[in-house]
Amino acid sequence: MAIEVDDILRRNSLSVTDSRKKILSLFLSIHGALAHGDIERKAGEKFDRVTVYRTLQTFVEKGIIHTIPTTDNSVRYALCKDNCTEGHHHDNHIHFICMQCGSTLCLEEVLVPEVRLPKGFTSSEIEVVIKGICKECNNKKNSPIVETAGLRLRL
Amino acid sequence: MAIEVDDILRRNSLSVTDSRKKILSLFLSIHGALAHGDIERKAGEKFDRVTVYRTLQTFVEKGIIHTIPTTDNSVRYALCKDNCTEGHHHDNHIHFICMQCGSTLCLEEVLVPEVRLPKGFTSSEIEVVIKGICKECNNKKNSPIVETAGLRLRL
DNA sequence: GTAACTGCAAAATATTTGCATCCTT
DNA sequence: AAGGATGCAAATATTTTGCAGTTAC
User: Fold this and answer.
1) What does the DSSP assignment read for B80-115?
2) What would the pLDDT profile of A133-147 be if each residue is shown by its tens digit?
3) For A39-66, what is each residue's pLDDT tens digit?
């Protein structure tokens, strides 16, 4: 993975620095989206807050990650797939926010639907965010509850 | 309109105060969405910033307005149609952000499309935001340019 | 060696909270 | 009159900017 990270940075003509490698690794290792705060916290070591801001901005500009809008003033970011180029991002998948576990996922396999706009409108970008319960959480809900050592657990 | 405003507030068992009337009127008069900052500015007179925060929050809780997600850490708000009830908001229209004039519109007539989620996922809410150029701006672009009194104008 | 990146300090913004006062009901 | 809403002050939190020191190439 370390190699992949270096590669991505180089391909985008960014110098390969520690913070960038660590933050990018985070995105690669997590299947989902991260908010600014998550990164400050999740990373084992502490990053300077400013570095995180600047790194995220750089990554967005280069098309390495993309933003996912939320209604709570907390933009989240997720890795882009390969065909994103600098400046123009081809976002043809939908985003899913699980209200149980709170994670945000890119559902790559679900294409954004066609929307017929009223006459006169032209669109250049469409963003679909769905809230609900994710597969994992639904599975847990349906799985039997076991009792072990005094704890009630879902498998 | 003053009457309508009073009515909406009463129907939601909110006391009818000056700030609430003014802010609600703003929403009624504008066909589009407003961000916190817009309200502080657009209102002829100055509201206390805190009052705006609290009023918006109250309106959202009551289902009078709803939030529209954006990618730039600036949530916007727009009036809900009648069938929104407290706590649960029925958002079955899409939102449009014009990249020319910057306005955010609720396209009431465009229903959100059906999206088929992968097995295991359940959805409770779907949000669609489209960026592009709105009707007005497209019209301006196509209209002839006239010269009047030394100014070049689009009609 | 040079340009780019980081981290600290601090400025600028944005949001939340407490409380005394004022307004609705 | 009582409860709720406002506005001020101030506490927090978030984001941006400048700059000097460090690192990648």
Assistant:
1) PPTT-BTTB----EEEEEETTT--EEEEEEEEPPP-
2) 999 999 987 766 655
3) 987 766 678 999 999 999 999 999 999 9
Other residues' Cβ atoms within 10 Å of the Cβ of residue B86: 11
Cβ contact, residue pair A119, B139, below 8 Å: no
Look up the CATH number of the domain holding residue B119. Answer: 1.10.10.10
Name the domain count of chain A: 1
Asked if residue B61 keeps its beta carbon closer than 7 A to nucleic acid strand D, the reply is no
Expressed as residue numbers, the domain containing A76 is 2-154
Put simply, whether the predicted model's pTM sits higher than 0.85 gets the answer no
Q: How far from A43 is each of A20, A29, A36, B93, CA to CA, in Å?
A: 12, 12, 11, 39
Residue A26: burial class (beta carbons within 10 Å; 0-12, 13-18, 19+): middle
Q: What is the pLDDT of residues B78-100, one digit of tens each?
A: 998 764 555 455 567 899 999 98
- Chain A CB contacts of B125 under 8 Å are 130-132
